[in-house]
Amino acid sequence: MKPIIGLDCQKILSPTGSGAGVEHYVYHLANQLAQNHDRFCDLCFCLHPRLQDSQVAKQLQAKTGVRTVFWPQSALERRGWWPYTKYRRQANFLRRQKLDLLHGPANVTPLFYQGKTVVTVHDLIIYEHPEWFPGGVADWFWRHSLVPQALARADKIIAVSKFTKQQIIRHFRIDPEKIVVIYEGMTTARVAPTASAPEKLPQRARQQKFLLYVGTVEPRKNLPRLIEAFGQISNFFPDLNLVIAGKMGWKYEPALRAADQLTEKSRVIFTDYITQSQKEWLYQHALGFVYPSLAEGFGLPVLDAMANKIPVVTSNVSSLPEVAGSAAIFVDPYSVASIGMGMTKLVRDADLRQKLITAGLDQARKFSWEQNIKQTLAVYQTVLN
User: Fold this and answer.
1) What DSSP string runs through 225-272?
2) How far apart, in Å, do the first and last CA atoms of the chain sit?
3) pLDDT tens-digit series, residues 169-178
4) Is 70 helix (H, G, I), strand (E, B) or coil?
5) What is the CATH number of domain 4-185+368-384?
């Protein structure tokens, strides 16, 4: 009889395609498992109840050897200030699924679940820079209870980068042998036939050159320094704009204030949330991609840009040099001058841009979901054996 492996899909990409890096990881992990598991195990995907009639659920249910179940609403809601009832319900629900192994793909597994587990850790940046996150009771509980207990109980831990593995060892003193580095995969670049410009992108900017940032507007993305650096070089490139594409996150206001302080503030354009079609239009037309983040656990936006043939400027810290390899211009994210120099180099040197495009495509091809799933299934086998 084949073992049954469960995957907690609470954080899976929404039917509209929106979501952060973790949601993309869970979506592609679930789909790759559904396509590649059959010789080894059966699968049980635990989905959020809002997805019961979604295309995501139907897509997974159509695969052989796959069972989809939906978390009861009572197991997802905290009533009052006491959180433990919710987690006991989650553990009881999982026990009824008779799993041989549970994979928590988003840093945690439910408290009180006593079966074998694998946990994927994307980053532990909140432990080093709590000021970059909203805080509150939920964050405190996540940091001081959910994550430590999940990692302590886990039979194996998957880290999405060597940088993240070192974070786990440093903060939790976990045996390095328990941690396996498995990089996220990169999907093939797509060119949507219906790609359309974001509505908030002025007609003027559509006809001019622009540098592109894609991601949430939040503190660790370092956008105030990026905008200040753009302001310092903008006089040298009068037809160049900076497009910041992504929803407004927690503490987005400093980025808006930084743009307001520029002499030509109209050349910094915030699109807010963009659809996949709009993102692909931006990829097709951007002169370069700028991503001076202060910290990342992996850095999927950098690979996404490379796969879409865009030369990249990014930070020389955290996991970004590991992921970008030698295929990007690296800058000190804490130095406005360094960010400005990186952008200037990219804009001025057409030959360099072409070299970065070629190197970026080669770099992105190193990160495949096929390789990810092969290594993930090997981790499952190790735990079950």
Assistant:
1) HHHHHHHHHGGG-TTEEEEEES-B-TT-HHHHHHHHTSTTGGGEEEEE
2) 14
3) 999 999 999 9
4) strand
5) 3.40.50.2000
